[in-house]
Design goal:
This protein has helices at 19-37, 42-60, 77-81, 98-107, 118-123, 125-133, 154-172, 190-197, 216-224, 249-263; strands spanning 84-92, 112-116, 137-140, 178-179, 200-201, 206-207, 232-236, 267-269. It has 281 residues and is an alpha/beta fold. The strands form 2 sheets. Strands 1, 2, 3, 6, 7 and 8 form a 6-stranded parallel sheet that branches. α1 runs antiparallel to α2, α4 runs parallel beside α10 and α7 (154-172) runs parallel beside α8 (190-197). The radius of gyration is 21 Å and the shape is elongated. It starts with 18 loop residues before the first helix and ends in a 12-residue tail after the last strand.
């Protein structure tokens, strides 16, 4: 038999510098020119630089911001018009939780997007393949989910995200199209790194904070409040909190969420499905 072809890479997109970064460079140039003309202005120059860097840091700490580059916080308008909604599940795969999540999704005929950690996927490749086999999407959530991810430079981000691309593609046969930053935190180097890898950043419309909230009712209320077509919801199979009885919160939340979403006429799709026009044949 001929050797299997390598998984196709998503097309590399051209990186366009966001307006905030263009303004940052202009500000730096203006402040340096001011300092050259008037050395005594150094306190104002330092204050201006500090304020600018504080703004960049604040934007990086805001997961739903698009000031540092394109960022999905809702599905495209066409998907919303079709009544579609995206359930995204982070930090897996988890051998104790993910199989039960998959069974719940099957029971309700729902599709989800699993943002998997590359190192975890490498430890549980069969489970990662099972996610894909059941019709769900496996996307990139970094290779190691490091706490200092947002402090990495361009080369470090490329290595960390690229390693997860290779790991997940090697397991599932498909290179991810979407990336979600650990905890949603990032810096100005992330978008050029994603552009070179052909990845689209995806955040969320609403999250349940189910890594620390142990009451499924609270998580459900957060996710279901003003739920509308086009929403991207975030839950966790890995690192999920447990109820007082020891049950993973996601397993208590999913039946309620899927039932109420379906009752409202919403259809749960993957992020990639939201880009696909339905066939009219």
């Amino acid at each position: 038999m001929p050797a299997a072809l390598p998984p196709l890479a998503p097309p590399i997109r051209r990186w366009r510098m966001p307006l905030l970064l263009r303004l940052t460079f202009l500000l730096h140039a203006a402040l340096l020119a001011l300092l050259a003309l008037d050395p005594s202005s150094w306190p104002w120059v330092l204050a201006g630089l500090a304020a600018n860097h504080a703004l960049l840091t604040a934007v990086g700490l805001w997961p739903r911001s698009n000031w540092l580059g394109p960022n999905w916080t809702r599905l495209p308008p066409a998907a919303a018009a079709r009544g579609e909604i995206a359930l995204t599940i982070d930090d897996g795969p988890d051998p104790h939780v993910t199989p039960r999540v998959l069974d719940l999704l099957d029971r309700h005929g729902a599709r989800a997007t699993f943002f998997c950690i590359g190192a975890r996927a490498a430890r549980h490749p069969d489970l990662c393949r099972e996610i894909a086999r059941r019709g769900h999407a496996v996307e990139n959530h970094s290779q190691h989910h490091r706490h200092h991810f947002s402090l990495l430079g361009l080369a470090g981000l490329r290595r960390e995200i690229g390693a997860a691309q290779d790991t997940l593609a090697g397991i599932t046969g498909r290179r991810p199209r979407f990336f979600r930053a650990p905890a949603g935190l990032r810096n100005p180097f992330l978008d050029p790194a994603l552009a070179g890898l052909g990845l689209q950043l995806a955040a969320w419309t609403r999250r349940g904070f189910d890594t620390r909230e142990t009451d499924p009712g609270v998580v459900c209320r957060r996710l279901l409040r003003d739920l509308a077509p086009g929403a991207i919801l975030l839950l966790h199979d890995g690192h999920c909190a447990r109820t007082a009885a020891g049950s993973p919160v996601i397993l208590e939340v999913l039946p309620v969420l899927l039932e109420q979403g379906s009752a409202a006429g919403l259809r749960f799709v993957t992020l990639s499905d939201a880009l696909t026009e339905p066939s009219h044949e």
